[in-house]
# Entry
Amino acid sequence: MKVPFVTLKPLERELDKELKMAFERVLDASFYIHGGEDEAFEEAFSVLCGVKHCVGCGNGLDALMLSLKALGIGEGDEVIVPANTYIATALAVSYTGAVPVLVDPDINTFNIDVSKIERAISDKTRAIIPVHLYGQPCDMDPIMAIAKQYGLYIVEDCAQAHGARYKGKRVGSFGDISGFSFYPGKNLGALGDAGAVVTDNRELAETVRALGDYGSDYKYHHIYKGHNSRLDELQAAFLLAKLPLLDKINENRRETARKYLEGISNPGIILPSVPEWAEPVWHVFGIRCSRRKELEEHLKKAGIGTNKHYPIPIHLQKAYEDLGYEKGDFPAAEEISETELSVPMYYGMTDDEIGYVIDSINSFR
Ligand SMILES: *Cc1c(COP(=O)(O)O)cnc(C)c1O
# Structure
């Protein structure tokens, strides 16, 4: 049997008609930027997140970067970022001219270690970016309390956590402003690049919209040196077709995760732990193993695709040499980078596939 690390086919088969209708609708309208599909999606996505405003943009990196810029963050500022995340989180900070300051994650939840945030705060710190990594919500209550105490903004990175809940409330609705990615493989994915910002603050939403549309508040009137980062009509139409299925997609992933958590019993494997207040959406199911390379080989021989999130932590990337960090500075992030292995997780995995992955992991010696 072969089990890919990820495939979008089961969802695309289910939505074949809706996706083709979306394409035809946009082609018939013959309007490709700002034609109405974008607004319809923004409205529907803000309702799902439980926030007042949503602004579509080009991708998840831009969603974060435009959010930071709308908050006025730039040169001379520092922004706290978890050491274990996709590099986009740090790049969004760098693109504003501010400096990302890393904080080690909690080895059990993979998310930012709340107890280590305060010692990273300086008089230049302006914001914290909690990343709901692998679809697991961060512990938002203490993070919000720290932000309040020190007068910092919260920008949630929700790129891997569409629809996830913390204490019953959707991620993206806690911070001042939040960024989402609709990269095709995300829990809610476009058929290309796309992203969005959500916020309850109308002024921030308007600033993000202007910044992403050449800095213009109305046509040919430019109030900022802005960017070109808009949600195009085709992607908005595809996202509108997929959005009604998001909760079903996430429930299906949670079902798969439950089977993994119950079925994987190999003592050499550390399973992800889920705090009781979390309703994760399992963008990634990451297990840990001290003999990762051998496990990876074992699964590969069995025809099972795997991945690593992420093999080189940000502080050891060449691109971020200038931050001056060294090996050993973030022990949990380094431990995760050396031991984490992501196993197949996608909407529509069959029981046979799930059982085969479980058996193959359990037979690893
Ligand atoms: C995917 C991702 C991003 C960036 O999204 P793009 O749409 O690829 O630009 C940002 N942060 C995290 C945590 C991500 O996983």
Q: What stands out?
A: The radius of gyration is 20 Å. The chain has a mean pLDDT of 98.
